[in-house]
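hi! just following up on the protien thing from before. the input was this:
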Amino acid sequence: MTERTALVVGLAYPPSWDQRAADVIERDIAALRAVDSRVNVVRCPPGATTLAALARLDILVGLRLPPDVPRAAPRLRWVQAIGAGVGHLLPADLDACGIRLSTASGVNAVPVAEFAFARVLGHFKRFAELDRAQREHRWTPYYGEPLAGRTLGVLGLGAIGTEVAVRARAFGMRVSAMRRSAGRPAPHADTLYGPDGLRSMLAECDAVVAALPETPQTVDMMDKAAFAAMPAGAFFCNVGRGSCVVEEAMVEALRSGRLGGAAIDVARLEPLPAASPLWHAPNLAISAHSASAAGAHFAGVFRLLRENLVRYLAGEALINEVYTTIGY
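and the predicted 3d structure came back as:
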């Protein structure tokens, strides 16, 4: 196989991100090479990447792109993102460069949904107070509330949102969901709203989980008016994108008691600065973008990559291919 005929796939992310056993990773790479004799998989992680290495790539698998894509990677024709969010890649104007873009949406939906639902469950069962009493050696009972019969709101009924809804209904909750296309069936939601029904949906929810992509329509969606629409004492959890929340409004809602509690796995600025007021907001649980499961994530990424590679070589539509006009 010569350089001229090779289809070079570059794994352009830090190897430390994929914490699976080396032999498991090598099996996944071998499976990619087995798709077609022309496929050549190379590692070009950030920091070690040179312009010469990028110039060889036909396909880039990663999270970032060089500033000047046409100059740095003139052969590049497809970017397979290893994350669900690609808002930071859209300004690169890949369409104009003839470069296709696909996301890894859904590869880790179950672990993220489990994490989000654990936050909801922990709030209503008062785990934080029980843990605090144990640390302080206090035999103080804190009685939780049942989830059954309550309403969970799901913002964004994609892969993660759907898995959240499945778990909520297994606990006997009613599910009210909002998504961009409200006309399509949603078997796991009892009530479905479009974006124009956001505040009506929020008003009926005891807890809300946001699992939204970043688009012009979702930025700042959870603002002061949105939090005010929620019932007093409701719970809010965000495992989607930090940009959907006006953080000052969320902090104000927590301090006023409008929100009984909240949990965020994402923030508008990551890493979250040490001086951020979010650290001191009452009844706010913060995790560092870690709702996913690293091993399961990369296993899913490679399964998706192999399927999309087959599709790419056949000239077919890619799974999770991004339509830049709507941002996902």
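The chain is about 30% helix and 15% strand.
The mean pLDDT is 92.
cheers
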